Amino acid sequence: MTLNIIKWGAIGGLIMSILATLGYAIFPLDNPTTFQLAALTGYIGMFLGLAMIWPALSGAKAQLGHAPAMLPAIGIGLGVALVAGVIFGLFNVLYSQVFMPEFLDNYYAQELAHTGLTEGPEYDQKAEQLNATRDFLKQPLNGFFAMASAVWALGIVYALILPFVYRWAKGK
Q1: Which residue windows are transmembrane per the record (predicted)?
Q2: Residue 43 and residue 23: Cα distance in Å, rounded?
Q3: I need a labelling partner for 33 at 20 to 30 A (CA). Which of 25, 98, 163, 170 fits?
Q4: Distance from C-alpha of 53 to C-alpha of 9, rounded to nearest angstrom
Q5: What are 80-91's pLDDT values in tens digits?
Q6: How confident is the model at residue 158 (pLDDT cuts 50, 70, 90)?
Q7: What is the full DSSP assignment across 13-44?
Q8: For the chain, which residues make up each domain, given as ranges?
Q9: Minimal CA–CA distance to 4: which of 69, 71, 75?
C-alpha cells in the first residue's frame, strides 16, 4: 500500500511541477495577461496532480480485492497529497533558487503591477507587503513549506471527498 501511495504521490508531484514549468515557459511574466495564464496553469497542475488520489484508490482496491474502507481511503488520499506536496515544494525551491533565481522578483513585480496602483500611500503599503512576502519566500525552507502547504491544504479536501466519490462510482 505504501508503494502505491508513493508512486501516485510522485506522479502527482511531477504533474504539478511539469505544468508549473510549462506555464512559466509558455506564458512569460512580462504582462498581466500572460502572468495570469501562467498562474492558472500552475493551479490546474495542482488539481490534476491531486487527482492521482483516484488511481491510488484503484490500486488499493486491486491490492485488497475490494475498495478500501473509508478511513484507510482517506489515509491513502492524505498520503498521496503529502508525497505530491513534498515533491512540489522541492521543485519550487529548485526552480526559484537554481533554474530561475529572478522568478520571485518577476512574479512579485507583476503582482504589484496587477494591483492597478501606481503611486501614493496605498501603492507604497502594497509594495512593502509584496516585497516582504517575496523576501520571505526567497528563503528556501520558507518557499518549500509555502508551496508544499498549498498542495497539502488542497490535498486534504481531495482526500476527504474523493474516497466518497470513488465508493459511490464503484458501488462500494
Answers
A1: 5-27, 33-57, 69-95, 144-166
A2: 10
A3: 98
A4: 8
A5: 999 999 999 999
A6: very high
A7: HHHHHHHHHHHHHHS-TTSHHHHHHHHHHHHH
A8: 2-170
A9: 75
